[in-house]
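Standup notes, protein team

Yesterday: finished cleaning the Filimonas zeae set.
Today: PDZ domain-containing protein structure.
Blockers: none.

Input for PDZ domain-containing protein:
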Amino acid sequence: MPVKYSFLLPVFTALAPLCSAQTAPQLQKAVQQTVQKVTPACVKLQWYDTLTHEARGVGSGVIVTAEGHILTAAHITDPGKTYKVTFANGSEAIAVALGKIVFQDDTRLPDVAMMKMVTPGTWAFAPMGQSAALHTGDPCVSIAWPESLNQPKPMVRFGRVLETATELGFIRTSAIMEPGDSGGPLFDCEGNVIGLHTAILPAEDWNMEIPVNWYRKYWQALQTGEYFREWPATVSDTTYKGGKATTTWASQQQVASQAHAIWGITGGYCHNITSTIDTATRSVYGMLLKIKGKSYIISKSSMVADKPVLQYNRKSVLLNVIKRDRENDLVLLQCNAVLPGGYPLSSAVAANDSIAVADMGGFLVSPRTDSQVVISVTGSQAVSMPKQWSTGYFGASVAYRKGPVTVTLVRGGSPAAAMNLQKGDEVKRINGLTLDSAAAYGEQMSRYWPGDTLTVDYLRAGKEYSGKAVLTERPVFAATHPVDMFPGGKSSRRDGFKQVFMHDAILTPEQCGGPVYDMGGHFRGLNIARYGRTSVFALPAVLVNQFVQEALR
């Protein structure tokens, strides 16, 4: 039975040889230089209506010639259709889809497609490499636009080649991807395109890439604009000259060795906190701080109840809540005993922590409480993540049409059901604010968090009623796509942040709340949420410092 891969519609795990000509710092520098060099050639692709100027869908691609040839995935293209091309710097252009290849008897393969710029210009491009020259353990870099993040700039990720050819002929890597990344490029550490993103399986280390040699081999056929249902008869390039990486890079073990050295210095600052929320015991990481001789813990507020306990050297240390920050989901706790160690957080320590463009692709280290570390790379500068999934749950839908704000559905077991709101009721006011449209209802609901209380005034059969509801966290529904099936899942509170940076760490929601460092051991921020398959959000160190200083005034 064939393996069912999921196309991407809208920790390293591989072992490499121990001997290497390059060190971990040299590999980091190469990754950062690659990101700077090739990002101008990376593009977001959207189907585009030239009459209405409407752009829909999200995919990614890469320009590989100065004339504007774009390599991408077949499952996001339709030959002859027009596409909007958006660059990382925000500039836009127009391209047309050329040929694509999808087999009649197996639509997973080979997923090869090409576009061409129609907007006049000479374009920045990335050279095509040689996918046949790859080895297990080779480092690789991904730059594309995950749809769930809805950000104007791409996210950078790092991985290793785990298989040079799966049963379908794809390259398998640990560079994590998700819908929106489809067609996006995979680079070697010299800036050559070696693959294009195509599909995933639920496990985070199952990320499939279309070998770039397939594009090189059928280059001429792809320019015809035809939809091929088998390999084209015309073959362009079987020599694959140029584009072959020549450097042997630091292995996974070498990078991990340096990361563990950082744990030896900073790992003692990461601890486990337990507390009880609604009769359920929750666990989350926290960072131990030492300030003016006293011991404090900073952590993720939504995962910490009012009587938390710190697990320290097999003993339970009681913690007192000093202050909470709902906007940044932070909580500062004071230990009821002075503990050894603790990070010396101060204005001087956190002042120089801004994420610069040159930092993209730099290695990051997130200590775990089991003496292990999770290695990732800086995927973005500081961005805003508006509240979407973290709003309080009411459980009543309304009709989006002109006229009264009429309830169309009340979900069983929801706060709306508990206050006896019913289908057909007209919602007049929420917390005293008069609603004149369904849009106003949605806008008002987006302001509230789980735990907030609403007073809802409504009409039923011409008579006005009023009820109160305490909002809850949104219910978690069974995942239907592999992108949502990764172990541990997403954090319940995962957006509504004014400033976070992204990295590709594999952390569970319970492993958030702890610190993240760069490879120099400098504190860069606090892991605050597992947002999705590709991304963990971290609050910059300067925000963490500001919160602590304000809490202790």
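Follow-up from PR in the comments: The domain at 259-385+484-551 is CATH 2.40.10.120 (Thrombin, subunit H).
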